[in-house]
Amino acid sequence: MIWVILLAMAALAAAALLLPLRRTTQALPARSAYDLEVYRDQLAELERERARNLIGEAEAKAARAEIARRMLAAADENAAPAIKPGRARGWIAWTLGAAAPAVALALYAVLGSPNVPSVPHAERRVAEATADEKARAQVTRMVATLAERLQQNPDDLQGWLLLGRSLNALGRYGEAVTAWRRVMALSGDAVEHAGSFAETLVQAAGGVVTPEARTNFERVLAADPLDVRARFYLGLAHAQAGEDRAALQMWTDLLAVSPADAPWVADVRQRIRETAATAGIDPASIAPSPEVVRAAEAARRDRGPSAADVEAMRRLSPEARRDMVRGMVEGLAARLEAEPGDVEGWRRLGRAWHVLGERDKAVAAIAKAAALAPDRVDVLTDYAEILFDESAGDAQDPRFFDLMRQILKRDPDNADALWYVGIAEARAGNRAAAAEMWRKLRDRLPADSPERAHVEQRLETIATPN
Questions:
Q1: In this model, does residue 404 exceed pLDDT 70?
Q2: How far is CA 405 from CA 152, 201, 366, in A?
Q3: Are 213 and 203 in contact (CB under 8 A)?
Q4: Over 9-34, what HEC string results?
Q5: Cβ-count burial of 454 within 10 angstroms (0-12 exposed, 13-18 middle, 19+ buried)?
Q6: Helices and strands (DSSP H and E) totals, the chain
Q7: pTM of this prediction exceeds 0.70
Q8: DSSP string, 356-390
Q9: Residue 463 — pLDDT band, cuts 50, 70, 90?
Q10: Of 150, 289, 425, 441, which one's alpha carbon is 20 to 30 angstroms from that of 177?
Q11: What is the DSSP letter of 207?
Q12: Which pLDDT belongs to residue 93?
């Protein structure tokens, strides 16, 4: 039955398309006739705009003259003979029109699924909306469970981080601010979380960059001059404060550090145009800051080898490849000696020397990064990883244990820090302090994990009689 219906529908559609082609002797109006109608509409619209004072009299006069010139040209064309469709073209159209339904049906027979029941569009929309609502409800329940758990364990930094991000995703920015405040308190106001905290403050304030948000964005930018989020919002803060030139400078610098195809570039350019127009400032007069240009160029140089470089390296011998990498690393080291304030550069250099087996150079480089950013847990973690000696067991470099204590101070739930600070306390004879660290770590690990079993074994070795 379905095929009968489809054939009937195809025949009706073909007839509707082909019947007009039988009138092959009827002349078609010239294109200029339609143009004249368009120009008449333009004249009428022009008069309406002039009546509403949307344009001046001089502009209206010039527009009338141009439209009149085009109407005269169109009138001349309209005097030419009308066009008749050729008989050959009509037969081609008939042939194609008749063949199209047959081809469509043949393709459907091969590729289609006529026996599959259809689902009305409205029902699909309802089903999709229902699925979205169920997913959101599930996330909401998980957030509520997490919030309840954090009431029992208020010092769980990772839990507060997850809660803050989840509330942001749900658009509950007021509650998210509370979660992020707890993150900042537990992390010692770590700059690595300051950007997310500041952005949440802006969202909770309806897009207004509050003084507290501005202070945190300034901290982020001081630590990383290439942070695009901080630059965007600081530009917005300047604009909201009426500091238009400062806003334009911040956004111009943002474009300088952004990839050309970054998704935010178009929006930033639009804001620059609008702000410049409102303030009466020529945007071309705002050049990127020299220090920002240098930082962006350094980041591009340090971003790593291109695809062509990788292919060239693949063809090299292992010795030649190592020499090439070493040359790139030494180039980075030379650049950092001239620009010693680049935290990320020193981190990259430390990791690179570490991979090359140059431990002393790696330690020296990462130590400079840690000196520039002493509150960043990620930098301290890099430093500790480079200092760590697998062959030393529990007898690690004292600097390693000191770094673990610093990390634990900023991130009280850091698993590595809890483990190694516990080892340090045990080696110092502080069995109770070691047990406290390891019990806290144990309680955070899954009950059936081998890591938890290992921690419990350590607890047994330092257990004291009651």
A1: yes
A2: 25, 31, 17
A3: no
A4: HHHHHHHHHHHHHHCCCCCECCHHHH
A5: middle
A6: 22, 0
A7: no
A8: TT-HHHHHHHHHHHHHH-TT-HHHHHHHHHHH--G
A9: confident
A10: 441
A11: T
A12: 44
- How many CA atoms within 13 Å lie on the side-chain side of 446? 3
For the chain, how far is it from start to end, CA to CA, in angstroms?
A: 87
Long-range contacts, stretch 264-269, CB < 8 angstroms, 24+ apart: 264/228, 264/232, 268/232
Calculate mean pLDDT across residues 397-405.
94
Instruction: Tell me how long the chain is.
Output: 466
Structure-block tokens of residue 8: 């009937």
Q: Which of 31-40, 57-66, 229-238, 316-325 has the lowest mean pLDDT?
A: 31-40
Instruction: Provide mean pLDDT across the span 157-164.
Output: 90
Q: Bigger pLDDT: 76 or 253?
A: 253
**Spatial distance between the Cα atoms of 264 and 338, rounded to a whole number of angstroms:** 32
Q: What is the mean pLDDT of residues 205-211?
A: 94
Say how many C-beta atoms besides its own lie within 10 A of residue 201's C-beta: 24
The amino acid sitting at 8 is: A
Amino acid type, 345: G
Whole-number mean pLDDT of the chain?
Answer: 77
Q: CA-CA distance, 221 to 234, in Å (whole number)?
A: 9
Contacts of 385 (CB under 8 A, 6+ apart): 354
- Is residue 157 within 8 Å of 412, Cβ to Cβ? yes
Q: What does the block give as tokens for 430?
A: 């502080």
What separation in angstroms does the CA of 181 have from each of 124, 190, 409?
42, 11, 17
Helices (H), 187-264: 191-204, 211-223, 228-240, 244-257
CA 420 to the chain's CA centroid: 35
- Long-range residue pairs from 372-377, CB within 8 A, at least 24 positions apart, any chain: 372/341, 372/343, 372/346, 373/191, 373/223, 373/343, 374/406, 375/188, 375/189, 375/190, 375/191, 375/410, 376/190, 376/191, 376/192, 376/223, 376/343, 377/187, 377/190, 377/192, 377/407, 377/410, 377/411, 377/414
| Tokens standing for residue 302 | 């340090």
Q: 83 by DSSP, 3-state: which?
A: strand
Using CA atoms, how far apart are residues 326 and 330, in angstroms rounded to an integer?
Answer: 6
Running DSSP on this structure, what letter comes out for residue 113?
A: -
